[in-house]
Every structure is written in structure tokens, then in C-alpha cells.
């Protein structure tokens, strides 16, 4: 397991063994525990100006949650802290009961195997084929080639790109490239998918199509955190909404942005 501090001596075998995964069996204790908890989290990039200040938040297994707020409110920071691209200054982030900040460097890749991450700018290798861009997630795990082919084919079919595996990523439209990025995020069957402004470079209709894909992923059992400042998407779906405001997380269960926050959103 991986809750020990980085200053502790490493164990003989370090591995992250999740308590639950989407589509897999999990114990009663794991089922009753939130998949993600932020406890009194502080994060600052310059003295006296914290982005997150004592933020508390709990996400249950299987939820679809929008995260919004004005530019600079901390949406991307929240996600980067979760997948350990950055560390908290104070507080704890518990992913499936484990303190993310206390992971050893060697354990971080095991953490990320249980996360699917989708970015606004796709982060594809244009000279690679669609298949290669998705398969890399499984290849780094050392999976057999036959299993990789099967899993990549299933992922591409789920995002509507069946038969496009041999196409270079560079010839795809923006919407198609984002679908490849989503396939790459879900091919490893993660417990949690993080979407950081995934529709920011797409026109409104394509943005709705991509949102629909994330909803289908969620309906299959995967927890989804969808960070966006696009009010049109928030208006389309009455889902749980987390508004980041002055470093805190304001929970809006029915998705209705409260008076006072609406005008502050950078749409």
C-alpha cells in the first residue's frame, strides 16, 4: 500500500492496489467510503494569495460532478493536485482512502493508472496513429499485444471512432482528436476520470457531443470530475455543481448557480 511518508525507507515491493475500480468488485467498506475527499486543502503560488484556502470536498463513487468558477479560481489546480502534478501546501487529498500527498515518487505512476485524464489541448502525438495514441496507456503497463488490441478497439468504439485506428492523429478534426484523448483516458478502465476544460477548443455542438460521451462513461460506473467555465454546458444538465469561489468549494447539488456567483464566472 502507499500511505507511508516519502522519508520512510521503501518497502521491498511498492504497489498501489486500489480498493475499487469501475466495473470490478469492491468490499462493503470501500463502497461506503467516498472515492475522493479534500480535507482543509491549501495551495498557494505566491505569499498571501492562496488559490485554495481550507477547501473541503467529498465526491462519492459513481458521481458526475461539474467544477466551475472564474478564471484563476483553481479548477486546474484542484485536478493537478489530485493526480500529483503538484503538492498541497496544507491539508489532505484522499483518493480511495489514500493520502495522495504522501505517496512516494515511485508510487505516483500506480496512482495515475487508476485515473483517466483529458485536457483541453488533447495532448496527442500527431505523427502517431489513433491506435498508437490510445495504446500507449496500456503499453507502459506491459500488457500483451492481443489484449491491447482488444481494449483499444473497444475504447475507440465507445467514443465513436471504430475503424479509425490507422489514421494519423494529425488528420483528425478537433472533435475527433478529443474523442481519441477520451479513449486514451478510459482504455485503462480507471476508477476516476478527470476532464480539465475538455470542450474549451470546440464549437458548441461538438462540446455537447463530448459532454454526452463523458455522461456515457459515467453511466457505465466511472466517477467523472468535469471542470469547465462554459455556462452553456452547465445549463444543459442539472447535475451536482462545485463552484470554486475565493479558494473554497461551494456545493450546488441541483446545478443552479447561486445569485452572486453567476456574474463572476468567466464565460
Count the beta strands.
10
How would you sum up the global shape?
A: globular
Mind telling me the C-alpha Rg?
18 Å
C-alpha end-to-end distance: 42 Å
Helix content: 25-40%
pLDDT < 50 stretches: 1-26, 263-267
Individual helix count:
8
Quaternary structure: single chain
Q: Which series of helices and strands comes N to C?
A: HEEEHEEHEHHHEHEHEE
Write up what this structure looks like.
A six-stranded mixed beta sheet has the order 6-7-8-3-9-10, with helices on both faces. Residues 1-26 and 263-267 have low confidence and may be disordered. Helix content is 29%, strand content 22%. With 267 residues, the protein is an alpha/beta fold. The termini are far apart. Helix 4 packs across helix 5 (145-158), helix 5 crosses helix 6 and helix 6 (174-186) packs parallel to helix 7.
Q: Which features does this protein show?
A:
267 residues; disordered N terminus; 8 helices; alpha/beta; six-stranded mixed beta sheet; disordered C terminus; globular; 10 strands; four-stranded antiparallel beta sheet
Sum this structure up briefly.
The chain is α/β, with parallel strands linked by helices and 267 residues long. The chain has helices spanning 28-32, 75-82, 108-112, 130-139, 145-158, 174-186, 204-219, 231-236; strands at 36-44, 50-59, 64-68, 90-95, 98-99, 115-119, 192-196, 223-227, 240-245, 248-252.
